[in-house]
Amino acid sequence: MEKSRIVITGIGLAAPNASTLKEYREKLVHGTSEIKEIDLRYFGKAPAGICSFPDTLYRKKKENKKGTRAGCLGVYCANEALRDGNLDISTYSPSRIGVYIGLTEHGTVETENEVYNISKYDYNVDYWTHHHNPRTVLNNPAGEITMNLGITGPHYVIGAACAAGNASLIQAVQMLKLGEIDMALAGGISESVGSFGIFASFKAQGALAEADDPTLASRPFDRDRNGIVISEGACIYTIEYLEKALARGAHIYGEIVGYAMNSDAMDFVLPYGKRQAECMRLALERANLQPDEIDLINTHATGTRQGDIEECKAIREVFGNSSSTYINNTKSIIGHAMGAAGVLELAGNLPSFDDGVIHPTINIDNLDPECALDNLVINKAIQVDSVATLLNNSFGMVGINSTVIVKKYTGD
Question: Which one is catalytic: 162, 235, 279, 371?
């Protein structure tokens, strides 16, 4: 057995509609969105995905107050991943565990909060918190996890826009293959709903979704879509060598068999389907799989007109008319969780390996002809004979693309 085979053995998550994988999966299969309207300071009202999770389960309230919202999400999800994987942290040497967290942004929420706080004191910087610097350094969420768990191995954050969740998984796999670590906690975190600047920027770009009913606001592929629903969230995995997982009798969610990242080198915000297609092809090549051997594609599509169309072009270019490949979208249900998007969406689809159910893309009333992909699962979940391979796309601003392929482990 190759030591370099890498598997997922535990999942911890906080999504806008759930704080456990079981509940999350049930909501996705039934197409249950819990996107709500928030009233954000300086901005006003907008649809958004807000997480509710027991943030004092693994860390005291005082520690949470000293840390960050991203850190709270990370500590909760990391501990949940270990619990879900039935993995005692002492199984591994603390210096041989890596923590890799993908982020789209970090520090804007804390900075905006501090500026608001000192505005009440005539902008006297004497009232600026001394916790600001450690709260806003980019490695903060990963570092908070290591402090909570006593991990002394490498920790860092991967800034890869909305491809960051997938990038963290790729980093974990590569570090394991290099023999730098023995186990990884890897995933993504988003605290975006706390930032006025993020909402204002998407609004200025004409890319922020609007709807009278917030649960209908996120509608990728629909002709009447009008933008992105911003969500917070987090998802962290325990990732191990296959032989170690088997030796301790772990449940294996899937084996990471292929991955790729590349760059558009074209535009700050506009996506480029040709490079997305190249990214998927490279991941397939590394996985030693043909397009018709992929059973399910989870799309990145965010609900912007050009973004959705470019990804659909890329999928058609790579997969043609593969009758064996189904396609869905998770953002239609939970919104766009930015740096956590890829890993949350992957987590919601991994149970398809066991039950053969493919969750729907909801809120499609008028399918855009340019997004009419064959086997797109619309508005209602479907049951198929089997799902053994899953391709997960995540793309981001400044032209960064990522694809991760996971295969069902069957004992081979």
Answer: 162
- The span from the CA of 318 to the CA of 302, in Å, is 20
Beta-strand pair 254-263/400-407? antiparallel
Residue 322: per-residue pLDDT = 81
Domain boundaries, the chain: 6-247, 258-407
Question: CA-CA distances (angstroms) from residue 142 to 74, 102, 106, 145, 165?
Answer: 7, 9, 12, 5, 13
User: Angle at Cα 48 formed by Cα 73 and Cα 143, nearest 5°?
Assistant: 20
Going from the C-alpha of 163 to that of each of 71, 93, 191, 406, the distances in angstroms are 20, 30, 15, 16
CA distances from 98 to 28, 177, 378 (A): 30, 13, 39
How far is 193 from 191, CA to CA, in rounded Å? Answer: 6
Class of domain 6-247: alpha beta
Does residue 106 carry a catalytic annotation?
A: no
Q: How far apart (Å, rounded) are the C-alpha atoms in residues 31 and 333?
A: 6
Catalytic pick from 77, 106, 155, 300? 300
Examine the residue annotation and report whether 300 is marked as an active-site residue of this protein: yes
pTM: 0.97
Answer yes or no: 162 catalytic: yes
Run of H or E residues at 22: helix 21-29
**Regions of the chain with pLDDT less than 70:** 1-3
Tokens of 188: 């993504």
Considering all CA atoms of the chain, what is the largest pairwise distance in Å, rounded to the nearest integer? 67
Q: What's the CATH fold of domain 258-407?
A: Peroxisomal Thiolase; Chain A, domain 1 (3.40.47)
- pLDDT tens track for 303-348: 999 999 999 999 999 999 788 999 999 999 999 999 999 999 999 9
